[in-house]
Amino acid sequence: MFCEQCEQTASGQGCHQWGACGKSPEVNAIQDLLIYILRGLAPIALRAGELGISAREIDRFTCEAIFATMTNVNFDQTRFTDYIHRAINYREQLKAQVQVTTGSAQAWPAISFYQPDFEDDLASQGQDLALQFISQSGSDVDIFSLKLTVLYGIKGVASYAFHAQELGQEDDRVYQFIYEALAALDRQDLNLGDWVNLALKVGEINLRTMELLDAGHTGHYGHPVPTAVPLNPRIGKAILVSGHDIPHLEAILQQTLNTGITVYTHGELLPAHGYPKLKQTYPHLYGHYGTAWQNQTKEFPKFPGAIVMTTNCLMPPHGNYQGKLFSLGPVGYPGLNTIPIDENGHPDFTPAIQTALELPGFTEAAPARQVTTGFARNAVLGVADQVIAAVKAGKIRHFFLVGGCDGAKPDRNYYTELVEKVPEDCVVLTLACGKFRFFDKELGDIGGIPRLLDIGQCNDAYSAIQIAIALANAFEVDVNQLPLSMILSWYEQKAVAVLLTLLHLGIQDIRLGPTLPAFISQNVLKLLSDTYHLKPITTPDADLAACLAKG
Length: 551
Ligand code: FSO
Ligand code: SF4
What we know:
Bound molecules: iron/sulfur/oxygen hybrid cluster, iron/sulfur cluster
Radius of gyration: 23 Å
Number of strands: 16
CATH architecture of the largest domain: Up-down Bundle
CATH class of the largest domain: Mainly Alpha
Distance between the termini: 47 Å
CATH topology of the largest domain: Substrate Binding Domain Of Dnak, Chain:A, Domain 2
Mean pLDDT: 97
C-alpha cells in the first residue's frame, strides 16, 4: 500500500505496511480504485455540465464517495464496493444521457471505460491502478507532489460540499471544479506552473464551499453567539454526538425531544452550542464531553450512553464501547452499528436512542466547569469598535490564530505551550479540534474582550477570514499588515483545503506544524516558502518572538 494523505503517516514518509490510522492495505487499495473510477466519471460529468444536463444526484454521490476516502472516515471494504458499483452505474447513465443530448457517441478517455472485475480481488486491482498513478508522473516528484496536493485538497472540498448540500446550499461551480480537478489527475500535458495554479484554484473553490456551508449553518440556526457550555454532566440518560454534522445533530435533538435523554457534543460539534436556534429549540442540548478525536478510545468507554459518529475522525473502535457506537453517512467500520436512512435521506436514530435508554446514563454530578464558544464573525464583528479601540490604545498588541487539527503526536504540545506563553496583552483566536489542548484555560479578558475566542469548526476558517478582512478594512491595511499571526496545526485533508484557501488569498507567514506534509516535495516547499513565507513551527518561544516582532 501507499498512502501519505495525513499528518500521522508512517515515519513522516508514507504508510506502506498498514495505515497508522488503522486502515488496512486492502481498504486503502479499494479507496484508490474508487478514486480512479471517479476520475473516469469526471470528464463525462464535465461534458454533461457544459450541455446543461442536471446531475445533482451524481454530484452529491461524488462528494460523499470522495469524503468516505478521507482519513478516519470509513474503514469498511463492503461500503467501498458499493460506492464503486454506484459510481459505474452513474457513469454509464450519464454517458447515455450525453449521447442522447448530443445525438452522437462521444470520444471519452480510456479511463472512462474502466471496468473492474467484481469476481476478482478488487484490492489488487486498486493497487495496480495506484502504482500506475505513481508511475504516470515519471521521475517528476514535484508534479506528483502537486497532483497529490490537488487530490487531497479536493477531498476536503468534497467533505464541505457534502455538508453544505445537506443544508440546501449548492453551487454548480463547486461540483464542476471537483470534476475538473479529478479529470486533471489523468492529464500528462500540465506543467509545474499549471499544477500550482490548479492547487490555488482548489483553495479558491474551497473558500466558496466554506461560504456555502457558513450560509447553510447561519441560515438554519442563526449566527453563533457567545455561549457557555457545561463540561460537567447532567444526571440522566445520555447521547454523545461526534463529528461535524450539525443537521444530523439537529435530527438527533428532534428525535430525543421528550425522551428525557440529554444530548452532549463531542469534538468538532462543540461550536453547535453557539447557534441560537438550536439552543432555543432543544433545551436538552446541554453540554460537551471529552476532548479531541485521538482521545476517543479512552473517553468513549467512560461515556454512559450511546455515541453517534456523524463524520471523521473515527478511530477503529475498541470492543469495550463498539456496541454503543453508531455511524451514518460516509462514516463506516466493519461490524459497526449504522443508523438507517430512509429514501428521503432522513436518518432514523431509534437504535441509538434505545441503546441510550438501556444504558445507565450519568448517575453522579460533578463540579461545575464550562467553556465558551460562539465567537464567529458576527459575534466578533459586533464588538469590532471595541476591538479596534483596544488595538489603537495599545491594549491589544497582537492576535494569534491558533487553529487546526489535533493528533496523537507528543510534539503537538507546542500549541498548548504557545497559548500558555502568549503575552497578556494579546488575544488568541481558535478553531477546529486543535483547541482541545487549551480550550478550558482561563485566559481572562482585555477590557471585556475575552483573550480566548473560539470561532468554531475547521470550516469556520471562513468566519476567521471574514474577521481578518473586516479588521484589515477598518485599519485600512492589507490582511498581511494586521498584527495577526496564523499558527496552524494540520492533520487531514480538510486542513489541506483550508491551507490552500489561505494561500489563494495571499496570506503570508503562516506557521504550520507539527510536521510539514510528506507529500510536499522539497521544490514545492521552496516555492511556498519563497512566495508565501510559509514555514514550519519551531519552538513556542522563538515563534512568539518572531510573530510579535512583526508588530
Ligand atoms: Fe479535527 Fe478530525 Fe475538523 Fe479534521 S476532528 S481533524 S481537520 O476531521 O476536520 O478539525
Ligand atoms: Fe497513513 Fe494517514 Fe493514509 Fe491512514 S490516512 S494510511 S495514517 S497516511
